[in-house]
Q: What sequence folds into this?
């Protein structure tokens, strides 16, 4: 019996190119998502980057996460942006002057935002450790990072907890900024007038691929209100409080990873296993309906009817009871796994579907990677291999773009995007 060769010879150039993007975007302590559109450090970007970077340099992948957690707030939150002092202040909006983090007593010495992003970090830390356990032990990587990860998860559970799940207070915290799942909730928010701020994203990407001015005005309003509250997490008073399936799936998966990390560093893994089980059960109980997980609008007390890729990502959770239903949904008419260039970010049959606009239809490499990881975890290897194949083909065709048209595979958004390169590299270097 012949042993399959992986990566296949036809992907050797793609492998080299992915490594090149990660090396080019490395700053010395972390990797920028994009040299043009995103010139700072982003929270969940760094976690995904570490997953791929571990195949190039395990030490550099460790440094990626250590750098991010060096900007952790005293209350445990991991900010969604850590600003580079050397980057031009006009290069990104909203920049450090908007967030005013130094005025907050819990903030770190470096300027950051006050929002957070999905908690994929413990999962990334465990995968990074596995790339070179001996070196990680010599450096004390997990023993130093473990208490920071515990504090991060405690912040989410204590300050953002709603009915056993974690709430977000801004669309940016979901990572899926412009998802149709937020439309109804954002309709309650009075937008900041567009002439009151200057968007920088449209200098680099076509307007048709980005959120509208009205949506951006609502994002700015919510962010300013949260900032002006002192980042106080008063969920009862907030206009926008939602339970997102991907945020909670990654919280559960990362608690499971924290159990493994705890065992490695000599701590008790049982509290993390119990937390993972509780979040998994609450996720199914509160967010699962019609063979998919949906966002829940806390002030309105209702599930969003919209079907998005976030609803499939709970496959990353071990022992998920509804995994067969999610696989069925992935294969069905709404997402058509294996029949498109990548898994679309939004329902292909949905009323708000737009194949080019940010998170309203385009396909992203990180969410497809999460579904691939989940399919593998649940033993759906044929479907996982098919998703890997179309993902790599999309990267060959479009390059390392931020996202792609779900049918044609044509690239959209930023170029030389770091997590695209990193996750393509992980798919290439992980045995089938």
A:
């Amino acid at each position: 019996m012949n042993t399959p060769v992986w990566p296949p010879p036809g992907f050797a150039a793609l492998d080299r190119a992915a490594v090149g993007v990660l090396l080019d975007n490395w700053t010395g302590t972390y990797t920028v998502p994009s040299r043009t559109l995103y010139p700072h450090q982003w929270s969940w970007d760094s976690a995904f980057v570490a997953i791929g970077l571990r195949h190039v340099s395990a030490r550099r992948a460790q440094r990626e996460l250590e750098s991010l957690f060096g900007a952790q707030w005293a209350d445990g939150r991991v900010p969604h942006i850590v600003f580079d002092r050397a980057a031009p202040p006009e290069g990104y909006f909203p920049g450090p002057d908007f967030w005013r983090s130094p005025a907050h007593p819990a903030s770190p010495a470096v300027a950051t935002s006050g929002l957070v992003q999905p908690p994929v970090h413990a999962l990334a830390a465990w995968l990074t450790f596995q790339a070179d356990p001996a070196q990680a032990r010599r450096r004390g990587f997990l023993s130093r990072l473990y208490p920071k990860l515990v504090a991060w998860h405690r912040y989410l559970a204590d300050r953002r907890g709603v009915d056993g799940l974690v709430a977000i207070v801004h669309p940016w915290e979901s990572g899926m900024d412009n998802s149709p799942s937020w439309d109804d909730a954002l309709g309650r928010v009075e937008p900041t007038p567009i002439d009151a701020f200057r968007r920088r994203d449209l200098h680099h990407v076509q307007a048709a691929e980005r959120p509208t001015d009205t949506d951006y005005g609502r994002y700015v309003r919510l962010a300013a209100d949260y900032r002006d509250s002192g980042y106080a997490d008063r969920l009862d008073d907030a206009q926008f409080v939602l339970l997102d399936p991907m945020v909670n799936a990654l919280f559960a998966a990362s608690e499971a990873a924290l159990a493994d990390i705890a065992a490695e560093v000599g701590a008790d893994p049982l509290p993390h296993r119990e937390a993972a089980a509780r979040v998994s059960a609450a996720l199914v109980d509160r967010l699962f309906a019609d063979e998919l997980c949906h966002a829940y609008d806390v002030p309105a007390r209702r599930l969003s009817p919209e079907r998005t890729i976030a609803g499939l990502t709970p496959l990353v959770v071990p022992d998920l009871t509804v995994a067969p239903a999610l696989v069925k949904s992935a294969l069905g008419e709404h997402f058509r796994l294996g029949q498109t260039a990548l898994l679309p970010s939004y329902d292909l049959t949905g009323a708000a579907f737009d194949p080019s606009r940010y998170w309203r239809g385009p396909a992203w490499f990180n969410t497809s990677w999460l579904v691939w990881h989940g399919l593998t975890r649940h033993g759906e290897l044929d479907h996982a291999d098919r998703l890997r194949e179309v993902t790599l083909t999309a990267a060959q065709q479009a390059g390392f773009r931020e996202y792609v048209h779900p049918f044609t595979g044509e690239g959209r958004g930023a170029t030389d995007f770091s997590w695209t390169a990193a996750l393509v590299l992980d798919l290439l270097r992980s045995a089938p």
Summary: Residues 245-265 form the longest helix (21 residues). The two ends are 16 Å apart (CA to CA). The domain at 9-429 is CATH 1.50.10.10 (Glycosyltransferase). The mean pLDDT is 94.
